[in-house]
Amino acid sequence: MFTLSVGDVAAASGVASSAVRFYEQHGVITAVRTAGDQRRFDEGAACRIRVAKVAQRVGLTVREIAEIFAGLPDDPQPADWGQVADTLIAEAESRTAALKSYLNDMQSAGRLCEIDL
């Protein structure tokens, strides 16, 4: 189960080893410790990091991503990932709508300091 090293997860997810430790520290992924105090991750860690990177591009914080992932079972199935995707899509659409509203407000030739946030 928990057999992948930090380097393995980093290579599989396309991030630096320090990023793997960062995501673990913030609850996006979980590790167990060996007798030699080395971190070991399960096969899903790289997938979670890749999804987290997409979520960050949408604008979610690492804390928000960890909260979304907290609802996933230990061995997420496609339907579970579908729910995560639905959440990310809804969040992206909401943030896009807010950004469009801000753009419209800025183009209205009003005073920028009077834009409602």
UniProtKB/TrEMBL annotation:
Q: Which GO terms describe its molecular function?
A: DNA binding
- SMART domains recorded: HTH_MERR
What SUPFAM superfamilies would the database entry show? Putative DNA-binding domain
Tell me where on the tree of life, at the top rank, the source sits. Answer: Bacteria
Q: Where is the HTH merR-type domain?
A: 3-71
Which keywords does this chain's UniProt record carry? DNA-binding
* PANTHER family, sorted: REDOX-CYCLING DRUG-SENSING TRANSCRIPTIONAL ACTIVATOR SOXR, REDOX-SENSITIVE TRANSCRIPTIONAL ACTIVATOR SOXR
Protein name in UniProt: MerR family DNA-binding transcriptional regulator
Species? Paractinoplanes bogorensis
